[in-house]
From TrEMBL:
It comes from Listeria floridensis FSL S10-1187. It comes from the Bacteria. This is Lipoprotein.
Length: 145
């Protein structure tokens, strides 16, 4: 019985993973990094202000996770969802927010809740980026921890 219980505990530990093993950061530029805090929570960290960008947790009480992102030397664009929605592929995603971060002026757009308004703003500002899934965009980036 003890062997079975021991094997069960080891099996559960292996399947659930260990906290911290999936954490990493990807450098966007000298000021900003993308942090994966755990597999379903991705945030932008501002190294100068020690703050986290693209997070509506102050307004809805829940952390927002980046689900789509892209950047170049001038701009970073992202789409966030509540962490709960980002984890649940089967749920209707109703709380999406879009963001534009000007990497030259360090100005973050106000939250944009309409995909159409977001695309119009990209065209207006002549930003030649398209959102990509988070995993696909950061896949080949160097991880700094």
């Amino acid at each position: 019985m003890e062997k079975i219980l021991g094997l069960l505990i080891i099996g559960v530990a292996l399947l659930s993973g260990c906290a911290g093993l999936g954490d990493y950061a990807v450098k966007v530029n000298d000021r900003y990094e993308i942090w994966q805090i755990y597999p379903t929570l991705h945030v932008i960290h501002d190294n100068e202000n020690e703050g986290i960008q693209l997070d509506n947790s102050g307004t809805n009480g829940k952390s927002d996770s980046i689900v789509k992102i892209n950047w170049n030397k001038k701009f970073l664009i992202a789409k966030t969802e509540s962490e709960e929605e980002a984890r649940a592929w089967f749920k209707k995603h109703e709380n999406q927010t879009y963001w534009i971060l000007d990497l030259e002026t360090n100005r973050l757009s106000p939250p944009i809740t309409s995909e159409t308004a977001f695309k119009n703003l990209l065209a207006e500002k002549n930003i030649p980026l398209e959102l990509m899934s988070y995993d696909k965009r950061v896949k080949n980036e160097e991880r700094i921890y």
